[in-house]
Specification:
The complex is a heterodimer.
Chain A: H1 2-10, H2 14-27, E1 43-49, H3 54-65, E2 72-79, H4 83-94, H5 98-101, E3 104-109, H6 115-124, E4 129-132, E5 138-139, H7 143-153, E6 158-170, E7 180-182, E8 187-190, H8 196-201, E9 210-213, H9 215-218, H10 232-244, E10 246-259, H11 265-268, H12 271-286, H13 297-315, H14 322-325, E11 329-333, E12 343-344, E13 354-360, E14 371-375, E15 382-393, E16 398-401, E17 407-408, E18 411-412, E19 418-420, E20 427-430, E21 437-447, H15 452-459, H16 463-475
Parallel strand pairs in A: 1-2, 1-4, 2-3, 6-10
Antiparallel strand pairs in A: 4-9, 5-10, 6-7, 6-8, 6-9, 11-12, 11-14, 13-21, 14-20, 15-16, 15-19, 15-21, 17-20, 18-19
Chain B: E1 5-12, H1 17-37, E2 43-50, H2 59-68, E3 74-79, H3 85-94, E4 101-105, E5 110-111, H4 115-120, E6 128-136, E7 158-162, H5 163-168, H6 182-192, E8 196-206, H7 221-237, H8 241-252, H9 257-270
Parallel strand pairs in B: 1-2, 1-4, 2-3, 6-8
Antiparallel strand pairs in B: 4-7, 5-8, 6-7
Helix pairs in contact in B: 7-8, 7-9, 8-9
The chains are: A alpha+beta, B alpha/beta.
Chain lengths: 476, 299
């Protein structure tokens, strides 16, 4: 057994690739500064500010002052701020009560994009965990405590907590000008577990919901990517979660404020910048092996199922015209069962997505039809909607067939809609009242792609459906 | 405004000593910041009324705090020896108060450094009777005029008011309200005298509250009981018999604290201990569903 393991690592295996990549992380520790023996707080809070929103910054200070666990330091990184704003931030810090003030260290960074102040803060952090807090975030009294308790039990993992989103405005004028005002209730937008697979497409974790073990930055030298001017948090979360894994705490600890009349990082950069950065991060993800925790296997199975359904139905889109796709045949039973002799094919043509076929019984026989079977196609995976079947007798009297009265190997959805997922699709009807039929007319609409909406209906309210809803626009 | 005095009062009930000391530090800091800007609030007294079963502080601890903050605020500590609730407790603390203003606040509230600077500004208008600070991290949802800050009522989690107004109104209605809606009732009575109530969002205070992960409040059974009882009493006192009837039907059909509140209301009614209804034309009182004002949002 031992020999086999050695062989596995000597060959060009995925495990070897992963371990080699991992080794590059470990080797980097050489030459990096070692931590001193001084007493370290549990948490280093790194906060970037440009000193442009002092009332929000004051509010964060208050929230930090109200923590049930005060085992933290605050590294305030004033980034590319005007001299006047720097002075105002420093003045605000001086105004804080000593209990908070003594925890604050101020740094000024005059260069670089948004990642640079994070790298400065993370490098200076003395805590065993580090969390980034924006200068307009709101945190509950348990923010530090929840991180601390979880880290004591799962040291080394990223700790992830829950957050609300809330709409806010700044009052523009009047006696209250400049004051902040909540305009909608806190929504549990980010009160969901961390999901690595969801995170691959986009970031769903406000930065303050995460605490990173400090050693990944300070000992493995995993730094923020200074090329990025947005989504630097997402990139970092993905890289560190691949190394450390994530421990979820199902407790709300913060509010992410969405400014309705103020600038934020989303409004500061164009959609193109966001898209470019997203693609850049995806490229980076492709360049390193990804360790996936076993809890995601069931999610992967669901994704795989969805891909199968989607790809199978997608192929049908190539064939759009009804005539090219349909080759319907009408089998007639004159009391002897269906056979290949008593078959009618219509010469009528269908338009895109619609069809109307008229079968003349007289052409075949003067005998009375006991039942008929319509085989719309030899293919599978299509949908017939608004199916209408009209019978005409020798006196030209019309009778509408009740579609629901027929038998089919398709799946009925609502009225007049049948989904055919199996080969050899069929619909059969018995003719009552001994009618002497002259014509059978069959019309309807053809959907050669089983759409998401149809799958939704088929799947009802199943777990699979909910999962597909979540993923359908993200992955494909 | 120069040379004005303020009495800050808080009713304690089994609080954490650490939280109380922290609240004093933030309060003292805010007083200092205010004094550094101008000479207002030269005289500040903090009155702690301890309604806990056993006193939270020893005399020496209070003396230590007084030494620590001697140039900023004088701390008085009154051990009630019984669970007074908020209204009776505040009335007791307010007895003999000669200060120009009163700040009524919850024990664990933290004042921002500019609190006094901001909260005192609206009092330059003599028709302003009360000014309330903005709570964080979860802001109160009631509506206010964004131009003037005028609002229908103020919570006494942290609000400043004119002391003479408190006297004129005989304080909080301690006979009716134990701990909830005493502030609503007081606010409406302030407005009946023609005074305005101002919400001051720049006067921030930290007041810890928790939400469940679905965004709902997580009240304790005691909170459910006292808020149900208060809802019935407010509806009765402020002449809304329809609401009283509706609430009684609702609460009586339930088990637990709501039913207990309904029973308590009926007991008081039977014993003739309900307050006399006021404001029959609802010139001040506002009932909108289960709320007492317009709201920017509801939970």
């Amino acid at each position: 057994m031992k020999e086999k393991k050695v062989d596995l690592l000597k060959q060009d295996t995925l495990i070897r690739e992963y371990l080699q990549w991992l080794e590059t992380k470990i080797v980097r520790t050489e030459g990096l500064p070692k931590n001193s023996d001084e007493k370290r707080p549990f948490l280093s809070v790194v906060m970037r500010t440009q000193g442009k929103r002092l009332s929000a910054l004051q509010e964060v200070f208050l929230c930090l002052g109200g923590q049930t666990d005060m085992d933290f330091e605050l590294l305030l990184i004033i980034h590319k701020a005007m001299r006047r704003n720097i002075e105002e931030v420093r003045r605000l810090v001086r105004k804080q009560p000593e209990e908070l003030r003594e925890r604050i260290r101020i740094f000024e960074v005059e260069y670089g994009k948004r990642s640079v102040p994070l790298n400065v803060g993370f490098a200076e952090a003395k805590g065993s965990y580090i969390a980034a807090l924006d200068d307009d975030d709101l945190v509950f009294e348990n923010w530090v405590e929840v991180f601390h308790c979880a880290a004591q039990q799962h040291f080394g993992r990223i700790i992830h907590t829950y957050s609300f989103a809330q709409d806010w405005t700044r009052i523009p004028e009047g006696k209250q000008a400049g004051a902040l005002r909540a305009v909608y209730k806190p929504i549990p937008e980010y009160c969901t577990p961390f999901n690595l697979l969801d995170q691959i497409y986009a970031n769903h974790c406000p930065f303050m919901t995460i605490a990173f073990p400090a050693f990944v930055f300070q000992e493995i030298d995993e730094r923020f990517d200074e090329i990025l001017d947005t989504t630097e948090d997402w990139d970092y979360i993905m890289r560190i979660s691949a190394l450390c894994g994530v421990y979820d705490v199902e407790e709300a600890t913060s509010i992410y404020r969405i400014w309705k009349n103020e600038e934020n990082s989303e409004s500061l950069y164009s959609k193109d910048v966001w898209k470019k950065n997203q693609e850049y991060i995806w490229k980076k993800m492709e360049q390193q092996p990804l360790l996936i925790e076993k809890k995601y296997v069931s999610d992967l199975i669901e994704i795989s199922k969805f891909r199968y359904f989607y790809q199978t139905s997608e192929k049908k889109v190539e064939v759009m015209r009804v005539n090219e796709w349909f080759q319907p045949k009408l089998y007639l039973d004159f009391g002897e069962g269906y056979n290949e002799r008593d078959v009618l094919r219509s010469s009528d043509s269908g338009e895109e997505h619609t069809f109307r076929y008229c079968y003349k019984i007289k052409e075949l026989s003067e005998k009375k039809v006991k039942s008929f079977r319509w085989d719309p196609s030899e293919k599978k995976d299509f949908v017939i909607q608004d199916l209408k079947i009209t019978l005409r007798d020798q006196e030209n009297v019309e009778r509408k067939c009740k579609v629901n009265a027929g038998r089919t190997n398709g799946i009925r959805l609502e009225r007049h809609t049948i989904v055919f997922l199996k080969e050899d699709p069929q619909i059969c009807f018995k003719i009552k009242n001994n009618i002497h039929l002259k014509e059978i007319e069959i019309s309807g609409k053809l959907e050669v792609k089983v759409t998401d909406e149809i799958y939704d209906k088929l799947l009802g309210e199943s777990v699979l459906k909910k999962f597909m809803e979540r993923l359908k626009w993200r992955l494909f | 405004m120069k040379n004005i005095s303020i009495q800050i009062q808080t009713v304690l009930y089994h609080n954490e000593i650490r939280d109380l000391k922290r609240a004093v530090e933030y309060m003292a800091n805010a007083l200092e910041v205010c004094r550094n800007i101008d000479d207002c609030l030269i005289d500040a007294v903090l009155c702690w009324g301890d309604a806990s079963k056993n006193p939270l502080f020893q005399t020496e601890e209070i003396e230590g705090l007084n030494r620590k903050y001697e140039d900023i605020v004088k701390i008085k500590y009154d051990v009630f020896g019984f669970n007074s609730g908020t209204s009776k407790g505040h009335n007791r603390l307010a007895k003999g108060c000669q200060a120009d203003y009163m700040l009524i606040m919850n024990p664990d509230v933290l004042l921002c450094p500019d609190f006094f600077v901001e909260v005192m500004k609206p009092f330059s208008d003599e028709k302003v009777g009360m000014v309330e600070g903005r709570q964080t991290p979860i802001e109160h949802h009631k509506e206010y005029d964004i131009e003037t800050g005028e609002t229908g009522w103020a919570t006494l989690a942290c609000a400043v008011l004119r002391r003479k107004l408190y006297d004129e109104l005989n304080g909080l209605d301690e006979d009716s309200f134990f701990m909830y809606c005493d502030d609503l009732d007081f606010s409406w009575r302030v407005r009946m005298l023609g005074y305005k109530i101002i919400y001051k969002p720049s006067a921030m205070v930290y007041h810890s509250k928790k939400l469940s992960v679905s965004g709902a409040w997580l009240p304790t059974p005691a909170e459910i009981y006292y808020s149900a009882e208060a809802a019935l009493l407010v509806a009765h006192k402020w002449s809304n018999p329809k609401r009283v009837k509706k609430l009684l039907q609702l609460y009586s059909a339930q088990e637990g604290p709501e039913k207990k509140a309904a029973d308590e209301y009926l007991r008081r009614k039977a014993e003739g201990k309900l307050p006399n209804p006021i404001d029959p034309e609802h010139k001040v009182a506002t009932f909108i569903g289960d709320y007492y004002s317009e709201n920017r949002f509801v939970f």
